[in-house]
């Protein structure tokens, strides 16, 4: 019996070690993947105005901004429902989570803009401009964020009517599939935001708003151009599968035993 317990303990240590290694690789790979995603979302005409990345550290441009934007968005996403519940007695549910998502998107948007311009090398004069510039394309980003939250919720409801996860690992795999599916549907919003933000810093802007950006992109490059860079986003999600493949999740232990 003692030998079995020791073996289980060793297996747990091995799993934790593999998880730590995978998380380190995920942190190492996320900035270059994000860099490639943003660069891929830029239109061919806009690419001509950008400087090519010649050094490795260029691939890590915007890393701090990315971390900061995620931090601000996550605080709003989880904090707003708690504040609404404690201050106004509103129970946490889909409505309060969507509200938190919207607040997080609004607060983190200037940082996201900076990250995009930092990655493409056009960030030098951003902070000299007014607050309206910082929120360039906010309506599209807000609509995209809200749409992704609603699509994710709808897909989850439909998915779990058909599939019943029997383990934490299976639950996480299902959630990964739902997240990828919702990103696949809503990714064009991100492409449009990237193009509008970059276009605002060019000496000769090409787009007159979001609708013109969509029409011009489809006319010149075809509808699939709206999904530019999606492969890098999905690849970055894949690094989150370490919990499903390598480790034991304790988040859902009460649900699955």
Average pLDDT reading: 79
Task: Supply Rg.
Answer: 21 Å
Strand/helix succession: HHHHHHHHHHH
Class computed from helices, strands and strand pairing? mainly alpha
Helix content: over 70%
Compact summary:
The protein is mainly α. The chain has helices at residues 2-41, 44-47, 63-88, 94-120, 131-134, 138-162, 168-199, 210-221, 230-238, 242-245, 253-256. It is globular.
What does it look like?
With about 260 residues, this protein is an all-alpha fold. Helix content is about 75%, strand content about 0%. It is globular, with a radius of gyration of 21 Å.
Topology:
Elements: H1 2-41, H2 44-47, H3 63-88, H4 94-120, H5 131-134, H6 138-162, H7 168-199, H8 210-221, H9 230-238, H10 242-245, H11 253-256
Helix pairs in contact: 1-9, 3-4, 4-6, 6-7, 7-9
Characteristic terms for this protein:
mainly alpha, disordered N terminus, 257 residues, 0% strand, disordered C terminus
């Amino acid at each position: 019996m003692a030998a079995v317990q020791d073996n289980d303990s060793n297996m747990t240590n091995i799993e934790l070690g593999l998880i730590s290694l995978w998380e380190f690789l995920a942190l190492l790979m996320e900035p270059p993947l994000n860099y490639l995603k943003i660069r891929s979302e830029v239109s061919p005409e806009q690419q001509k105005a950008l400087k090519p990345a010649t050094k490795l550290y260029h691939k890590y441009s915007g890393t701090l901004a990315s971390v900061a934007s995620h931090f601000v968005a996550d605080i709003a996403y989880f904090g707003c429902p708690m504040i609404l519940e404690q201050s106004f007695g509103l129970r946490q549910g889909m409505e309060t989570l969507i509200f938190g998502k919207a607040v997080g998107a609004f607060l983190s948007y200037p940082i996201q803009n900076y990250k995009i311009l930092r990655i493409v090398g056009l960030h030098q004069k951003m902070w000299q401009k007014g607050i309206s510039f910082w929120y360039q394309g906010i309506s599209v980003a807000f609509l995209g964020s809200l749409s992704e939250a609603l699509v994710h919720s709808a897909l989850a409801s439909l998915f779990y009517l058909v599939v019943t996860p029997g383990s934490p690992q299976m639950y996480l795999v299902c959630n990964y599939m739902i997240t990828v599916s919702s990103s696949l549907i809503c990714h064009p919003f991100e492409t449009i935001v990237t193009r509008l933000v970059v276009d605002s810093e060019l000496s000769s802007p090409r787009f007159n708003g979001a609708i013109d950006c969509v029409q011009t992109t489809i006319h010149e490059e075809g509808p699939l151009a709206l999904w530019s860079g999606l492969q890098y986003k999905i690849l970055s999600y894949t690094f989150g599968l370490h919990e499903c493949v390598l480790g034991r999740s304790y988040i859902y232990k009460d649900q699955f035993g």
